[in-house]
Write a structure and sequence with these properties.
Elements (H helix, E strand, L loop, with lengths): L7 E4 L29 E5 L3 E9 L10 E9 L2 E4 L5
Parallel strand pairs: 1-4
Antiparallel strand pairs: 2-5, 3-4
Length: 87
Amino acid sequence: MSSLAPAQKIEGQWLDSLRITSATEGAIIPRLYGRMRIGGNIIWATDFREETRTTTQGGGKGGGGGRVQTTEYLYYAKVQFMLPEIT
């Protein structure tokens, strides 16, 4: 009877838009002394590549229980950062 039940579907986060920071001509380049946290500037980046991964788990002991289908979205990009000079 449980094998006739529809499969449960779980869908992960999907990235529909993203803005990233980038280098700006004429921006101030900080000079650091000692220890300090600071973010770098992205000076080069490729377009994002999206991968979809779907897995199905199901059945319990004796084949009972519902099936669960999970979809994950994975994103990849190559980036190059410029870090400030540390003296």
